[in-house]
Specification:
The complex is a heterodimer of chains A (148) and B (196). Chain A has 3 helices and 8 strands, in the order E-H-E-E-H-E-E-E-E-H-E. Chain A has 148 residues and is of the alpha/beta class. In chain B, helix 3 (53-62) packs antiparallel against helix 7 (174-190) and helix 4 crosses helix 7. Classes of the chains: A alpha/beta (148), B mainly alpha (196). The structure holds iron/sulfur cluster (SF4). Iron/sulfur cluster (SF4) binds at residues 73-75, 111-112, 138-140, 145-146, 170-171 of chain B. The site of iron/sulfur cluster (SF4) has 12 residues of chain B, from helix 6.
Amino acid sequence: MVSLSGSDIAAILGKNSVAGIIQVNRDNLVIDSQSLRGIASFLKDTPEFDFDYLSHITVIDYPVSFELVYQLISFRHCQSFILKIRCRDKETPSIPSVVDIWQGADLQEREIFDLAGVVFEGHPNMKRILLWEGFEGYPLRKDFKNDD
Amino acid sequence: MEMMDKYIYSDIELDIYEGKVIESLKKQNQQAISDPDEWLDEDISRNVLLATVDSVLNWARCTALWPVICFPACCAFEFMGAASPRFDISRFGMEILRASPRQADLMITAGTLTWKMAPQVQRLYKQMAEPKWVIAMGACGINGGVFKGSYAVVPGWNKIVPVDIYLPGCPPRPEGLLYAIEMLRKKIKKSSLKRQ
Ligand code: SF4
């Protein structure tokens, strides 16, 4: 599996006039959350990339932002790539959902909502998955306090 | 009884025949038939044991402890080790793991219990028939172990079900489990109907 370089992809995106890149790194791209769906569909539907599989979504709780990491895989080209989004709203973080682009995002987005409290807008079933309804707080946030 | 030696043609002949049957039965049955249990008298001292109800009941209970299948995490592997031929809990009449709690009388808490699982475990316990016992196996069973303080883990099974024996270890070895079972058997032997 080859991981693609951020600058190569940024160049191709720029050529196709896809906007929304915030930062170009060696092996990933940091993009704007509003352009996530546009860039995601572009990477999936362009035959040259053909990222047909969303391997995983992770959330990282930094002091100033939540960072979402999307790892994409193309089985045809045997390539992988990482997209990142930073969400600076720590109180009510919200990100567009990609469930209709990669169906595999469904449970992962729910898990992130459940444990870190990031809301995915447009998700068909945005509710808790591991914890029970009525659980207070989001336990994987750094500021979560347990009663015990 | 003598056979009918000729055909009977009238009522009076039938009555005479009946009279003969009764007379002969009466003649033959003058002595009482002997008691079929008479032989017991001689052997009774060899064949009857006397014991208290408590000791018989406790003996029956502690030699056939059937565990219910409820092993949510890694301690279960040590339980499997204890159940397999090397340690062999069938020596204690325990090898029959019941999938139905109604047929079980011992719950071994081999594992970590999460709050999400807790209602089901409590329900399993309530479905077990009395009398029933619980061995809290492993650090998780005692107080949550390495997961104590987690948002998801019940800090000790005794928050959910009453525990009889606490068996420390993470996980306890099968020998440890056998020791706990032995302690539980001692505890059962001390129980009495009067106190229940
Ligand atoms: S006590 Fe240790 S071995 Fe047993 S369930 Fe807990 S973590 Fe696993």
